[in-house]
Amino acid sequence: MADKQVDDISKDRNINRRTMIRAIGVTSVGLSGLAGVASAGEVKEKGLLYNFYGCSQVCVNKKKVDGKKVKAVVWTGKDFDYRYIYQSSNRNDPPVRDWKNVYCSAVKNSKEAIVGIRFGHTFIENPNRCAQNYPKPGGSIL
To answer: Which end of the chain, N or C, is more open, meaning fewer C-beta atoms within 10 Å of its C-beta?
Structure first.
Protein backbone atom coordinates (compact mmCIF):
# COMPACT_ATOMS: atom_id res chain seq x y z
CA MET A 1 0.00 0.00 0.00
CA ALA A 2 2.79 2.43 0.87
CA ASP A 3 4.47 1.70 -2.48
CA LYS A 4 1.29 2.68 -4.32
CA GLN A 5 1.14 6.02 -2.46
CA VAL A 6 4.77 6.77 -3.36
CA ASP A 7 4.05 5.97 -7.03
CA ASP A 8 0.97 8.25 -7.00
CA ILE A 9 2.94 11.10 -5.46
CA SER A 10 5.79 10.78 -7.97
CA LYS A 11 3.32 10.82 -10.87
CA ASP A 12 1.83 14.07 -9.56
CA ARG A 13 5.26 15.70 -9.40
CA ASN A 14 6.28 14.81 -12.96
CA ILE A 15 6.46 17.84 -15.24
CA ASN A 16 6.24 17.22 -18.94
CA ARG A 17 8.66 18.83 -21.38
CA ARG A 18 6.10 21.31 -22.72
CA THR A 19 5.28 22.65 -19.25
CA MET A 20 8.99 23.07 -18.45
CA ILE A 21 9.74 24.92 -21.70
CA ARG A 22 6.74 27.19 -21.15
CA ALA A 23 7.90 28.01 -17.60
CA ILE A 24 11.42 28.80 -18.78
CA GLY A 25 10.07 31.06 -21.54
CA VAL A 26 7.78 32.98 -19.20
CA THR A 27 10.61 33.44 -16.69
CA SER A 28 13.00 34.64 -19.41
CA VAL A 29 10.51 37.19 -20.70
CA GLY A 30 9.86 38.42 -17.17
CA LEU A 31 13.55 38.83 -16.39
CA SER A 32 14.36 40.55 -19.66
CA GLY A 33 11.61 43.05 -18.91
CA LEU A 34 13.24 43.89 -15.59
CA ALA A 35 16.56 44.76 -17.20
CA GLY A 36 15.14 47.94 -18.74
CA VAL A 37 13.05 49.14 -15.85
CA ALA A 38 12.60 52.88 -15.72
CA SER A 39 12.04 54.95 -12.61
CA ALA A 40 9.49 57.72 -12.92
CA GLY A 41 8.70 60.46 -10.43
CA GLU A 42 7.44 63.97 -10.04
CA VAL A 43 7.87 67.15 -8.06
CA LYS A 44 4.18 68.04 -7.80
CA GLU A 45 4.57 71.56 -6.46
CA LYS A 46 6.84 72.41 -9.40
CA GLY A 47 4.93 70.48 -12.09
CA LEU A 48 8.09 68.56 -13.00
CA LEU A 49 7.80 64.99 -14.23
CA TYR A 50 10.95 62.91 -14.71
CA ASN A 51 11.91 59.42 -15.76
CA PHE A 52 15.32 57.75 -15.37
CA TYR A 53 16.13 54.97 -17.84
CA GLY A 54 18.71 53.06 -15.85
CA CYS A 55 21.80 55.28 -15.66
CA SER A 56 22.05 56.02 -19.36
CA GLN A 57 19.19 58.46 -19.99
CA VAL A 58 16.79 60.77 -18.18
CA CYS A 59 13.72 62.54 -19.56
CA VAL A 60 11.74 65.44 -18.11
CA ASN A 61 8.62 67.33 -19.16
CA LYS A 62 10.11 70.83 -18.66
CA LYS A 63 13.41 72.46 -19.57
CA LYS A 64 13.12 74.95 -16.70
CA VAL A 65 11.65 74.98 -13.20
CA ASP A 66 11.20 78.35 -11.49
CA GLY A 67 13.37 79.90 -14.19
CA LYS A 68 16.23 77.46 -13.48
CA LYS A 69 17.36 75.07 -16.21
CA VAL A 70 16.97 71.37 -15.44
CA LYS A 71 20.30 69.57 -15.68
CA ALA A 72 21.37 65.95 -15.70
CA VAL A 73 24.06 65.25 -13.11
CA VAL A 74 26.50 62.90 -14.84
CA TRP A 75 29.39 60.95 -13.32
CA THR A 76 32.05 61.00 -16.05
CA GLY A 77 34.29 58.40 -14.47
CA LYS A 78 36.45 61.09 -12.88
CA ASP A 79 34.15 63.91 -11.81
CA PHE A 80 30.60 65.22 -11.97
CA ASP A 81 29.32 67.19 -14.94
CA TYR A 82 26.10 69.16 -15.43
CA ARG A 83 24.31 68.77 -18.73
CA TYR A 84 21.28 70.79 -19.69
CA ILE A 85 18.27 68.70 -20.57
CA TYR A 86 16.99 70.40 -23.69
CA GLN A 87 16.88 67.78 -26.45
CA SER A 88 13.31 67.16 -27.61
CA SER A 89 12.49 63.48 -27.83
CA ASN A 90 9.90 61.36 -29.57
CA ARG A 91 9.96 58.67 -26.86
CA ASN A 92 6.56 57.08 -26.60
CA ASP A 93 6.89 54.51 -23.84
CA PRO A 94 4.31 54.43 -21.02
CA PRO A 95 6.07 56.68 -18.46
CA VAL A 96 6.28 59.64 -20.85
CA ARG A 97 3.53 58.91 -23.37
CA ASP A 98 1.03 61.36 -21.87
CA TRP A 99 3.47 64.23 -21.36
CA LYS A 100 2.89 67.32 -23.50
CA ASN A 101 6.67 67.78 -23.94
CA VAL A 102 9.53 65.30 -23.55
CA TYR A 103 13.15 66.46 -23.18
CA CYS A 104 15.97 63.98 -22.67
CA SER A 105 19.66 63.76 -21.91
CA ALA A 106 21.81 60.68 -22.43
CA VAL A 107 25.34 59.64 -21.54
CA LYS A 108 28.01 60.05 -24.20
CA ASN A 109 29.81 56.76 -23.55
CA SER A 110 29.64 53.61 -21.43
CA LYS A 111 31.92 55.05 -18.71
CA GLU A 112 29.38 57.73 -17.82
CA ALA A 113 26.30 57.46 -15.63
CA ILE A 114 23.40 59.78 -14.88
CA VAL A 115 23.22 59.88 -11.08
CA GLY A 116 20.46 62.49 -10.78
CA ILE A 117 18.90 65.72 -11.99
CA ARG A 118 19.21 69.22 -10.61
CA PHE A 119 17.36 72.51 -10.87
CA GLY A 120 18.30 75.45 -8.69
CA HIS A 121 19.37 74.00 -5.34
CA THR A 122 17.19 70.89 -5.71
CA PHE A 123 18.88 67.56 -6.44
CA ILE A 124 16.86 64.43 -7.26
CA GLU A 125 18.86 61.24 -7.00
CA ASN A 126 18.50 58.53 -9.62
CA PRO A 127 16.70 55.73 -7.72
CA ASN A 128 17.83 52.92 -10.03
CA ARG A 129 20.15 50.25 -8.67
CA CYS A 130 22.87 51.13 -11.21
CA ALA A 131 23.28 54.57 -9.59
CA GLN A 132 24.44 52.92 -6.37
CA ASN A 133 27.68 52.00 -8.17
CA TYR A 134 28.78 55.64 -8.46
CA PRO A 135 29.73 58.37 -5.99
CA LYS A 136 27.05 60.70 -4.70
CA PRO A 137 27.49 64.38 -5.52
CA GLY A 138 27.95 66.70 -2.60
CA GLY A 139 29.33 70.05 -1.58
CA SER A 140 29.40 72.62 -4.35
CA ILE A 141 27.54 70.44 -6.84
CA LEU A 142 24.36 70.95 -4.87
So the answer is: N
